[in-house]
Amino acid sequence: xxxxxxxxxxxxxxxxxxxxxxxxxxxxxxxxxxxxxxxxxxxxxxxxxxxxxxxxxxxxxxxxxxxxxxxxxxxxxxxxxxxxxxxxxxxxxxxxxxxxxxxxxxxxxxxxxxxxxxxxxxxxxxxxxxxxxxxxxxxxxxxxxxxxxxxxxxxxxxxx
Length: 160
Prior knowledge:
Elements: H1 3-7, H2 10-13, E1 16-20, H3 26-31, H4 33-48, E2 56-59, H5 74-84, E3 88-92, H6 96-99, H7 103-116, E4 119-122, E5 125-128, H8 132-159
Parallel strand pairs: 1-2, 1-3, 3-4
Antiparallel strand pairs: 4-5
Helix pairs in contact: 7-8
């Protein structure tokens, strides 16, 4: 049994899997079809982890919308609501950071997943945010994002 499969329990499998698919612009949606294919292929990851195909909900209505804010992303809001209600056993996305580019939205989703015991899965791994080490990995993504924004701010400031 793989290390990932050990994290998946009967409790997780009793709930649904939510696959969130999004690209930031319509241009990306039209021209980066390989990204869309990779995102939809994560459905197979959920099946490999034990979810029945009928339990997998694909949320792709936010295509062409930036992840900068959850305010106008109906699909993201739906997913967060399902996690909050304890209906999600797992949330899947190509890169976890694609789920929310806004740090507040991202942190809120992480906290809700930890409270409800919802797993997060991307191409790099499977995370149970109730597990200290998995939580550290996810928070490093947040830290790296902050460092990139700070670096960008310093580069722009230096150009002036």
